[in-house]
Structure formats: structure tokens, C-alpha cells
Amino acid sequence: MLRRPDVPKIARIDMTPMIGTLLVVLFIFMAAQPVCACKGVDLELPTVSDQWPDDDIEEGSVYLALTAKEETYFNGRRLEGGLEELRGRLVEEFSERPRAPRFARLKGDVSAPFGTVSAVLRTSREAGVRSMRLIAVKHFDETF
After folding, report:
1. CA proximity to 66, closest of 9, 114, 15, 23
2. Fewer beta carbons within 10 angstroms: which end of the chain, N or C?
3. Does pTM top 0.70 for this prediction?
């Protein structure tokens, strides 16, 4: 059969196989998504209490406290020098006992400003504290 030279040839792309492939890939991703879902970080948020849990008392731990008026305490003594004094006391404490665990406990009033709590945590970390446990109290008293 002879072709007429004046009729242009039209090329068409068959979309059916491509749509089928995309649907299969979409189904695979949808089926695999629950299996591959990343698990979040487990947090143990502090509860409001008035005393340390019995299983939380360890030998050689450093005890910090923070009041609603942003007063900081170190092992039961009020720090007048703020965060700089806290950093110095922590460094001194850990240099006296280099093999002791570098754990600290922070007892804070629930109405203490978060920025102050964050600054105490950051200062403690910079001074060498490796692990910090928190306890929130309704009304701060000076007992540990």
C-alpha cells in the first residue's frame, strides 16, 4: 500500500503501562509505610511530687534546686552567684571525685520560668554533668 506524502505521521505514547507501573509503585509504598514508620523518642516527663522517688537516690549525686523566684541551690545551699557559681561548684565537685558518676538531680518549682530551667540544664551539661533527672514540685522548700 502506498502512502501519501502529504499526510504527516503522528507518534503516540501509550500511557497504559506507565499508569499501571505507577499504581503498583504507589501500592508498594502505601503498604510499606506502616512497617517503616520511625518510632519517636520515649520521654519520661517529670511528675509533680514533693520528694525524690526512693529508687532515685544514688551515692555521689549532685542535687540542684530551682525556685519560682529563680534562686538556685546546690546540695542544699543557696547560690548567690547564679549560673557562674553553679558552673564553678559543679566543676569543683567533679574534679574532687573524678571517678564518681556525673549525675545530677534537679528539683524545680512548677512555676519556675522555663528559660531559667533551660539555662541551669545547659550550664550543668557544660560543667560535665552526663545525666540529669528532674522532679517538679508544687511548692519549693529547701529540703532534699
Report:
1. 114
2. N
3. no
